[in-house]
Write a structure and sequence with these properties.
By secondary structure, the chain is an all-alpha fold. Helix content is 59%, strand content 0%. This is Cardiotrophin-1 isoform X1.
Length: 203
């Protein structure tokens, strides 16, 4: 029985999809990467908080909500979208995150120069987000649901360095906390969305 690489646009979330062997392997590989990065993102957030001092990390600390142009957390409505659209949103977020993480690393290099482990973790996170985003776009293209073509950098890429001029120490730390949180939210959401494509269920 032959297998055919179908379009994700025509598939239903609750219907099994047949993949070519190489595509099945790519989907599994990308899902496994997302699962690994979900764990790494939790460690990054914990490490980030530990390096910021009070009031970060205090039991009663509730950071104010902030917004970043071009990137927000996954909305509750995300879960109700078609799988192809969810994966496009995942890819777009992963495309914006590396520059934000790089900006956080630059701020932390000034604020916490004696925290080399955190700086390496932020550098790794940016590189890993790029890798996951590229892998996800490859999967989308193979499924006939390409995420987005090449173009200008997402608006979020310069947000940290341009918003309100040079941020104060607390604002810079707060922005970094928010970016690290967004990184975790989006890699976790990507893992969950990809799990619906893994043939035979989650490995």
């Amino acid at each position: 029985m032959s297998q055919r690489e179908g379009s994700l646009e025509d598939s239903q979330d609750d219907s099994p999809i047949s993949f070519l062997p190489h595509l099945e392997a790519k989907i599994r590989q990308t899902h496994n990467l997302a699962r690994l990065l979900t764990k790494y993102s939790e460690q990054l957030l914990e490490e980030y908080v530990q390096q910021q001092g009070d009031p970060f990390g205090l039991p009663g600390f509730s950071p104010p909500r902030i917004s970043l142009a071009g990137l927000s957390g996954p909305a509750p409505s995300h879960a109700g979208l078609p799988l192809s659209e969810r994966l496009r949103l995942d890819a777009a977020a992963l495309g914006a995150l590396p520059a934000l993480l790089d900006a956080v690393r630059r701020h932390q290099a000034e604020l916490n120069p004696r925290a080399p482990r955190l700086l390496r973790s932020l550098e790794d996170a940016a590189r890993q987000a790029r890798a996951l985003g590229a892998a996800l776009e490859t999967v989308l293209a193979a499924l006939g649901a390409a995420a987005r073509g090449p173009g200008a950098e997402p608006p979020a890429t310069t947000t940290l360095s341009t918003a309100n001029g040079t941020p104060g120490v607390f604002s810079a730390k707060l922005l970094g906390l928010h970016v690290c949180g967004l990184y975790g939210e989006w890699v976790s959401r990507t893992e969950g969305d990809l799990s619906q494509l893994v043939p035979g269920g989650v490995a």
